[in-house]
Design brief:
CATH topology of the largest domain: Rossmann fold
Number of domains: 2
Number of helices: 11
Low-confidence stretches: none
Largest sheet: 7 strands, parallel
CATH class of the largest domain: Alpha Beta
Helix content: 25-40%
Structural class: alpha/beta
Shape: globular
Mean pLDDT: 90
Strand content: 15-25%
Length: 260
């Protein structure tokens, strides 16, 4: 006979089988337990390899995370993304050339830019996101826009792949805004997919200043492919209150911490 614990964890797996992604809060409500209890369940299921933590929540292991529709991801943790974007926009200066990779936080950043046309009119924006390009009216809302082409992913509204990432090697930008999938206890940023990781590696190389935007749920996590050590970034924007070890690391590597 299954215990309450086993039944609850099976229910979690059943819920995730029906939806591409779910937040911790929604799973807690669906299983009628506290956030602390659901986190323990999710940690246990992740340790068993049955689920993985992704942008905005958790998903069944083995699912193609890139197939989670962009619209669904954009509607998850929207308030937090807006807060992170609100801090990120303050780093942009007139006449900057900025790289906005395709991610839902950068879409919120593009929307923040639209609120300051005097600034945005001076910017050159480089992106591989159709959503960001659309929000900025394909360059009509900024000084100029360059779209990084490649294989089109219709569900993600973006161009991806080796050729997309390779284009970045021809660019030198003022700032690259990068969204993190996971940051380990060893302060290494990693990602789920080689296309994303190749793009982010080239984004780091292309920029004078690099900004990592990552929420607290991505800390102490490790995924498949290494992007770079945190020391390669100039700014960290997060909602996480840093502990002593994290604060010391940022101070040692002269990384500016911005609380969202």
């Amino acid at each position: 006979m299954k215990s309450k614990l086993d039944k609850r964890r099976q229910l979690i797996l059943s819920i995730l089988a029906d939806v591409p992604i779910s937040s911790t809060q929604k799973l807690a409500e669906a299983t009628n337990v506290s956030n602390e209890t659901i986190r323990k369940d999710l940690d246990a299921l992740a340790d068993e390899g049955r689920i993985i933590k992704v942008h905005g929540g958790v998903a069944l292991a083995g699912d193609n995370i890139n197939e989670i529709p962009f619209d669904l991801r954009a509607a998850t943790n929207i308030d937090l993304k807006k807060r992170i974007a609100g801090q990120a926009v303050l780093l942009i200066q007139p006449e900057d050339t900025i790289l906005l990779e395709s991610c839902t936080t950068n879409l919120e950043l593009a929307k923040k830019l639209l609120q300051d046309p005097g600034l945005t009119d001076t910017l050159i924006i480089i992106t591989n996101s159709f959503s960001i390009a659309t929000a900025l009216e394909y360059g009509n809302k900024c000084k100029r826009m360059f779209f990084l082409g490649g294989w089109v992913n219709a569900r993600q509204y973006s161009a991806l792949g080796h050729k997309t990432a390779k284009m970045l090697t021809d660019f030198h930008v003022s700032k690259s805004f990068i969204s993190g999938a996971a940051l380990s206890n060893q302060f290494v940023l990693s990602g789920y997919y080689d296309d994303d990781v190749e793009f982010q590696k080239n984004a780091l190389t292309a920029a004078q200043e690099t900004i990592l935007m990552i929420d607290s749920s991505k800390f102490s996590q490790t995924t498949i492919f290494t992007v770079a050590p945190l020391s390669q970034f100039d700014y960290l924007i997060t909602d996480k209150a840093l502990d002593r070890e994290e604060t010391a690391y940022l101070a040692e590597h002269k990384i500016d911490y911005i609380k969202a």
